[in-house]
């Protein structure tokens, strides 16, 4: 099974055709342990059944074939309706909460559809270099693959919601903490260049047929100046132990810590703990892919499955606040002068690196991402090789980190693909850094994820600032 769980360093040396095969194969590897009944169930409005993901990611490539492959014949109008997600421009679609209300197309029909699209795409990619719009097509294929990697991560969230420890995940042993990490670091303010700069020490997107080309979403661009005051940021994500203290101090019972929207959730949804926490004989337990564990035994792991509302309440209780996304990005990308990073120069003369550790691709020793195969967060202090020059740990991997920033376009934003990122610029918060379900090749320090403030089925945690 591990054969195509290829690390980023390997994928970067491949052609787009090879990247296509590797990404498409991984989606099927993620769902491989499922039983047929698991594929079609929708356990909540916010999740999608696995069958839908494997069809939808194929539908995306079918829209590419429809647009660019002369004479392409649509596979099935019913499939177009069932597997479109939210793109008004691609016609009517089934409502999201109803994705689990149909038994057709069957799982086997959906897999046949997927195989058909793969066959067509293989031929299409082979001939693409002879086309006038080669670069445009290659960019859209890469975008389709990045889209599929987002769905791979969503599959992990959705399978967890569906089955939790009943899913037979191929879990590898977790690394041990080798360093105790606590306290905050001081970061100097000033002008900061926020966002993705082509050529941040990486190969720019000029050779789109090459998987080495670094992809960035339109929402990470353009790079622009922001002013930051001096600030402090936690060296580690907030841990289960930290969060238990908040809970034991009556955090969920005290309105003073909560935004109005959060207090309303506490009362209407009866929140008493993060998602996947259960109380047994008065003791808090956490259920994950590996089983049921005492929360106290996980005290040194990053807290996960908390909403922005809960993260904010904790921060207020702790006398801190959540960082802005610019503060988070500055903490992760700007090293102390003369340190390891070799990326392009920032205004202040410091260097801005692609990752906390510099410009090298993520590997198993630097961050807990999908390839590590843990299917879980790792203990704090387990990735000393991935820390920033300032000593902030696990900023990439483990949990997406909530920021206090609204998900809005950067000044000068230009859409690369209509209805992809641009239509979500209202009401959501930015999260940074990736999680244990994020593929290595998919993450960057400038990556902006976004969710609604109350959502918590995704792998989200936080660290605080001051
Ligand atoms: Fe999608």
How would you describe what is shown here?
This protein has 466 residues and is an alpha+beta fold. Helix content is 29%, strand content 10%. A hairpin with a 2-residue loop joins strand 6 and strand 7. Helix 2 packs antiparallel against helix 5 and helix 3 packs antiparallel against helix 6. The longest helix has 30 residues. The protein binds fe (ii) ion (FE2). Fe (ii) ion (FE2) binds next to helix 6.
From the structure above, extract its key features.
466 residues, alpha+beta, four-stranded mixed sheet, three-stranded antiparallel sheet, 10 helices, 29% helix, 10% strand, binds fe (ii) ion
How many helices? The count is: 10
For the largest sheet, list the strands in their spatial order: 10-9-8-11
Low-confidence stretches: 199-208, 338-348
The shape is globular
Quote the average pLDDT. 91
Element string (H = helix, E = strand): HHHHHHEEEEHHEEEHHEEEE
Number of strands: 11
User: How far apart lie the N and C ends?
Assistant: 45 Å
Instruction: Determine the fraction of residues in helical runs and give it as a percent range.
Output: 25-40%
Class from secondary-structure proportions: alpha+beta
What characterizes the major β-sheet?
4 strands, mixed
The molecules bound to the chains, other than polymers, are: fe (ii) ion
As a percent range, the share of strand residues is: 5-15%
Radius of gyration: 22 Å
Secondary structure: elements and pairs:
Elements: H1 8-11, H2 16-31, H3 50-68, H4 77-83, H5 107-127, H6 134-163, E1 184-187, E2 190-194, E3 224-228, E4 231-234, H7 240-248, H8 260-268, E5 277-280, E6 283-288, E7 291-294, H9 308-317, H10 325-333, E8 400-406, E9 429-432, E10 449-451, E11 460-461
Parallel strand pairs: 8-11
Antiparallel strand pairs: 1-4, 2-3, 5-6, 6-7, 8-9, 9-10
Helix pairs in contact: 2-5, 2-6, 3-4, 3-5, 3-6
The structure holds fe (ii) ion.
